[in-house]
Amino acid sequence: MIDFGLVVSLIVAIGAPALLAVRWASDDGWGSSFLDDATVPLLVGLMTGRLVTLALDDPNSIGSLSDMLVIRSGVEFWPGVAAAAGVVVWQTNRADRSPLKRLAALAPLALVGYAAYETTCVFRDGCLGPVSPVGLRPPGLQTTMLPVGLLMAAATLAGAVVVLRLQARVRPAVLVATAVTIVAAVRSLGSVWLPHIGDGMTRQHRTSAAVLFVATGVLVLASSRRVRTVESVVPDG
Amino acid sequence: MAAVAPAATNSINGRRRVAVVVVVVVVAGWAGWTALRQPALPEFVASGEPAELPADGDFPPVSLEQFEGMLVGQQGRPVVVNIWASWCAPCRTEMPLLDEAARSYGAEAVILGVASKDDPAEARRFLDDLDITYPNVFDELGQIRVALGLTAYPTTYVFGADGQLRARVNGGISEQRLAGLIEDALR
To answer: Among partner residues B92, B174, B175, which is closest to A61 by beta-carbon distance?
Structure first.
């Protein structure tokens, strides 16, 4: 059975940054190939995220192609992001370019894509959250809830603007760490308000908190490193 | 071969981009409309003599009448009915989540699994493999899935404390949605 909510989510998550990249293409010269550049990392990210979910929740499914392709039952976010970033690094290295600069150039678009994905919670489950007099009423529920997914999208979009403005001012490592910190913070905070079973932290919450901790450390270290030469983050494609 | 003028190339590229955008918007709009369109709930109201849920470790074959009796017997607290099969991959992923919900909500809410369109021995092995502790029954004649208007595996139905069907989730259910639906039914 096709999960139409997930189909919309993926189209929007890829389409929004792709359209932006086309719009920015005249400025930076690489944006028009965003879809070509993003497709392979995205597919590898999805596949890796799916494999990690299966390894954690249902190892017996690994090896059964039909079971592995049913992605509606879960894709681990951070392993997927790490794999996609790894592919970008590998591709850029092969092209004799700076991987960090490439990641930094892609960072605002990746944030826009993630924000777009969160916005589509409307199509996936109706945007759940804490019970609130103001908000949306997800399908099947009789109470209105604060749409946490939409708030996460707004926060990420604000983060994308910050990252975009920082592009010309900070080193690529600082920019990439900033982008990761923003997404990890948004996911950690969002997890607090999303409904969950039991009293403990969800896996999304735990992993995002761990990534937030590491990314903040990297950000502090990268920011405090002495800069010998000022590097520009203008993409080199 | 004559070189194509830059202006003509730009025009073709511009038209191609517009076409791509139109196709993407149409596909996203159609899929979004389909996703938002909630299927109507089946007109299902459990009736009959109250019946007990199966004891720990039991996995009895039941008729629609016996199943309805179990629902009537649980009136006063929400019941989550999950229809599954051993051959269904998302079922395997979501059943540990349902087990966690059963343990977490305890006596406040009931989780009842219904294996349907399956081999009883395979279904039994499936439950044992996953260490499922909440009550499960086997839809022996396929009457339960027909009465509940099943269209996909797995499907989760939420009945309120008053016995009324409140929600149906076709396909795998997320932790957020399951918790949201149970909390809402408990309110």
So the answer is: B92
A57, A50, A108: which is closest to A233 by C-alpha?
A108
Using 50, 70 and 90 to split pLDDT, how confident is the model at B103?
A: very high
What is the ipTM, given to two decimal places?
0.81
Distances in Å between the Cα of B141 and the Cα atoms of B62, B116, B155 are 8, 9, 18
Residue B139, SS3? strand
For the beta carbon of residue B49, count every other beta carbon within 10 angstroms.
10
CA distances, B37 to each of A123, B19, B28, B164 (Å): 9, 27, 14, 21
**Disruptive mutation site among B103, B173, B184, B187 for chain A (greatest number of A CBs within 10 Å):** B184
Question: Which of B89, B100, B169 minimises the CB distance to A197?
Answer: B100
Place of tokens 């409904």: A195
B106: region left, alpha or beta (phi > 0 left; psi from -120 to 50 alpha) = left
Q: Do A11 and B24 touch (CB under 8 A)?
A: yes
Q: Is the pLDDT of residue B181 over 90?
A: yes
Span A56-84, average pLDDT:
81
Spell B24-46 as b/e; 16+ CB within 10 A means b: beeebeebbeebeeeeeeeebeb
pLDDT tens digits, B80-97: 999 999 998 889 888 999
pLDDT recorded at residue A237: 42
pLDDT higher than threshold 90 for residue A7: no
Q: In whole angstroms, what is the distance from residue A34 CA to residue A19 CA?
A: 9
Q: Helix axis angle, A34-57 relative to B89-105, nearest 10°?
A: 60
Q: Terminus-to-terminus CA distance in chain A, angstroms?
A: 40
- Residue A71: its pLDDT value, please? 62
Residue of B nearest to A2 (CA): B171
- Distance from C-alpha of A80 to C-alpha of A43, rounded to nearest angstrom: 9
